[in-house]
Write a structure and sequence with these properties.
CATH class: Mainly Alpha
Structural class: mainly alpha
Distance between the termini: 23 Å
Number of helices: 21
Shape: globular
Oligomer: single chain
Strand order of the largest sheet: 1-2
Amino acid sequence: MAQPELKRELANRHVQLIAIGGTIGTGLFLGSGKAIQQAGPSIMLTYLIVGIAVFFVMRALGELLLSKAGYQSFTDIAEDYLGSRAAFITGWTYWFCWIMTAMADVIAVGVYVQYWFDIPQWVPAIICLIILLGLNLLTVKNFGELEFWFALIKVITILALIGIGVILLVMGFKTDAGSVTIRNLWEHGGVFPNGISGFLFSFQMVVFAYVGVELVGVSAAETANPEKNIPSAINKIPLRILFFYVGALFVLLCINPWTELSPAESPFVKTFTLVGIPIAAGIINFVVLTSAASACNSGMFSTSRILYNLSKKDQASSHFAKLNKNHVPGNSLFISTLVISVGALLSKLIPEQAFGIVTTISAICFIWVWGVVLVCHIKYKRTRPELQAKSKFKAPFTPFINYVVLALFAGILIIMLFARETRPALLFTPLWFILLFLLYPGRSKREKSSSIATSTK
């Protein structure tokens, strides 16, 4: 009997909006407040630098995915070029960092709902998880539809913000914090008000802001016509970075001085409050809420698919490879959602530190995953020139740019070591990789003994 497979039900509009949703999330709507406090107006340069690096990672991933029809995600690529141990470590690391990211978003959902209702943070967090789990268990098309509408809300909001900001800038509108003017970019301590150190320390949160951009690669196995849709989505990333990140932050910092923004709240909500439009601030809070729900939805999707792929390769329990009648890995979804729900507990135990800890761990793990993609691409170009010659979606400036981006990622990790807030998480995270490295040989031995026992029967 043929085993059920994942269905290719994600259309072009789903893939395009998944790509947008992956580049606009909680890191921008909430995390940018902390990053702005660290870097001041130079935060725009930080977003630009990391955004360009991520684009080259995505071009490398796109070329690799399309070089072989059997690839379903970058764990397949890691196994092909770096071996099964590397695939094991990368796959479980990707699962772990999306678990961390989804936990952060669950925490954020509880915080945002408190804008309207005085209820414990864990209540809306659990309700959100239950709703998303129910929808994701139906069909992958539901995930695509959810992300389509969630991303559309984000896009419309940022377009509205930029439009209103330009109008206020032309009018010279006055807020409680002063006039809306481009001079706000340099009149409050300069472009680098906290010096080069503040600029460098902002990189961690900006890296977290871009997590999820690689969802285009995770969804490849369920994407209709990947040869057309994946390149189209990846090639539009630079424009989205310039517009949705740099453009939105430019408008925010012109409307109000960076000194007026608090790291504990969304700068988008704060901006409309300063402008004196309370109802708009409430609307923006709703958008930020949907953004957190969207990121949590992405986390549930990606973690379940990673568990599914690991199980198919005998690197996780066989139960995770089972698909329900809708061709969705239901067991993987259940276990991932259960682990993500721990985020609700963290928000109660360490409410002030929880978000910072999980976002730092997530950023470190994503740097690993992105780095693996770049290393695999270097090896692909060196060892399989015949595939590279036939490629219709060649990554530009390789392999030189791969080494440049890897050096940037290494530099960001070094910066985290010197920052007091990120140092504990950076020192803890290697334990995860050591654990995976040690677990893999033990699992291999058990599998070998199992196969020997089977052959002797």
